[in-house]
């Protein structure tokens, strides 16, 4: 009888995900956010998924690549939305409100608080230069939008980005996504932070800000 193709799972699937790659990311998210990068091994990640360590390397060449993938997942969707917002005809306050709400919602949509990964010392290594470049790009977009409201010389332009990121300190890390799907309704926390971002700039709140943001998110997804 012919042998099995590839390396089988050691156990039945035990992580959430549509495929092995997503299961690996889920396991790594838990381990990295609860015990750190240095003390997490690829063997531990593979064991948490229920696959052999060699099988993990089929999907990711290294632990560093897994970590980078998770870091980028906290930024890339918002960078894409920011580009779409730049092509829209909505006002600067609406664009900024939508971006703060979307980034906050994104950080609330994951099972594990992956936004915490940026706080780990290893995240500032040159190995993750690609992520740093994307993060700096996104922060710059936040500042540009704020500058459209209060002027480039106003130091408050730095605040909206950090207000959006403050959601990391406001959510738990217990394996339950506070708001897994924000395609049809924005989390209350995200709406509150987006309101706060405009409040510090003394900018008026757009009346249809929630509905417009949901529309923009749907357009971006198509």
TrEMBL record:
GO terms for molecular function: DNA-binding transcription factor activity; transcription cis-regulatory region binding. Residues 41-60 bind DNA. Gene3D superfamilies: Tetracycline Repressor, domain 2 (1.10.357.10). The keyword Plastid does not apply. InterPro entries: Homeodomain-like_sf (IPR009057), HTH-type_TetR-like_transc_reg (IPR050109), HTH_TetR (IPR001647). Keywords: DNA-binding, Transcription, Transcription regulation. Residues 18-78 form the HTH tetR-type domain. This is TetR/AcrR family transcriptional regulator. It comes from Corynebacterium uropygiale. The lineage of its organism: Bacteria, Bacillati, Actinomycetota, Actinomycetes, Mycobacteriales.
């Amino acid at each position: 009888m012919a042998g099995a193709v590839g390396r089988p799972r050691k156990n039945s699937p035990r992580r959430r995900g549509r495929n092995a790659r997503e299961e690996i990311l889920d396991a790594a998210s838990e381990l990295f956010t609860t015990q750190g990068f240095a003390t997490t091994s690829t063997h531990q990640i593979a064991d948490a998924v229920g696959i052999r360590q060699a099988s993990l390397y089929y999907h990711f060449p290294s632990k560093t690549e897994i970590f980078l993938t998770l870091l980028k997942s906290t930024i890339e969707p918002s960078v894409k939305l920011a580009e779409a917002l730049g092509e829209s005809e909505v006002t600067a306050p609406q664009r900024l409100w939508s971006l703060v709400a979307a980034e906050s919602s994104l950080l609330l949509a994951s099972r594990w608080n992956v936004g915490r990964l940026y706080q780990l010392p290893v995240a500032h290594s040159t190995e993750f230069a690609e992520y740093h470049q994307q993060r700096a790009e996104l922060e710059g977009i936040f500042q540009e939008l704020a500058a459209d409201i209060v002027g480039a010389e106003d130091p408050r332009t730095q605040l909206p980005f950090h207000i959006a990121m403050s959601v990391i300190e406001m959510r738990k890390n217990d394996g339950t996504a506070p708001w897994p799907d924000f395609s049809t309704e924005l989390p209350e926390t995200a709406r509150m932070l987006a309101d706060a971002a405009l409040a510090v700039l003394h900018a008026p709140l757009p009346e249809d800000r929630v509905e417009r943001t949901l529309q923009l998110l749907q357009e971006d997804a198509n």
